[in-house]
Amino acid sequence: MIGKLTGRLDYKALDHVMIDVRGVGYIVYCSDRTMATLPSVGEAVQLYTELLVREDLMQLFGFTSLVEKEWHRLLTSVQGVGAKVSLAILSALGPDGVSRAIALGDWATVKAAKGVGPKTAQRIVLDLKDKAPSVMAMGGTVTDALNGPELDGVVEPLEEAPAKPARTSKAKAPSGAAAASAGALSALGNLGYGPSDAAAAVAEAAAGNPDAGEAELIRAALRLLAPKG
């Protein structure tokens, strides 16, 4: 299994790139959002990857964070959802948006992705709603894994290519919003709330205030979880 690639970006196409890793070129398919974050051709790049193996096909899919990779793995585990549909969902919503939509049971938002019908969207939410809390919690646990050393001389310019100043590009650390959601989710769990209820409350609070910090999310989620009446 190929779990991560570190090398030089050889070229960009519409939905995939080639990464040169010590002379071996790997074709990696990515979501639109991931493609938009990649550096210029000729520069260093690092992606987490998932390998799809079939009788007549082997494809690599690339992600800038472990959270995005995990959502891709879970999405493609749903009946009728292949890699193309998964990337369409991640392109439309991003990993944080997928977390919110599934935690809230919001299949209409999932349906907004290209190629996703209402039945597929409902199946995704139904099958994965219980998985949302654990993926949302990853936002606060992968920072150390992503803050390792920079790419140290692993990318050598080809002889025929003009030399360029070295610039490294590491896989992305969780966003502030993802880390805040993960922290709030952990705090609610410590207070005794169930994972699904806590995830739904945090997702709703984050949707209402995307810039909220952890403390704000906890307070807002507690208000949502408070008994009504």
Automatic annotation (TrEMBL):
It comes from the Bacteria. InterPro entries: DNA_helicase_Holl-junc_RuvA_I (IPR013849), Hlx-hairpin-Hlx_DNA-bd_motif (IPR003583), NA-bd_OB-fold (IPR012340), RuvA (IPR000085), RuvA_2-like (IPR010994), RuvA_C (IPR011114), RuvA_C_sf (IPR036267). Residues 65-142 are annotated as: Domain II. The keyword rRNA processing does not apply. Keywords: Cytoplasm, DNA damage, DNA recombination, DNA repair, DNA-binding, Hydrolase. Residues 73-92, 108-127 form the Helix-hairpin-helix DNA-binding motif class domain. Residues 1-64 are annotated as: Domain I. Belongs to the RuvA family. Has three domains with a flexible linker between the domains II and III and assumes an 'L' shape. Domain III is highly mobile and contacts RuvB. The RuvA-RuvB-RuvC complex processes Holliday junction (HJ) DNA during genetic recombination and DNA repair, while the RuvA-RuvB complex plays an important role in the rescue of blocked DNA replication forks via replication fork reversal (RFR). RuvA specifically binds to HJ cruciform DNA, conferring on it an open structure. The RuvB hexamer acts as an ATP-dependent pump, pulling dsDNA into and through the RuvAB complex. HJ branch migration allows RuvC to scan DNA until it finds its consensus sequence, where it cleaves and resolves the cruciform DNA. This is Holliday junction branch migration complex subunit RuvA. It comes from Tritonibacter scottomollicae (Epibacterium scottomollicae). The gene is ruvA.
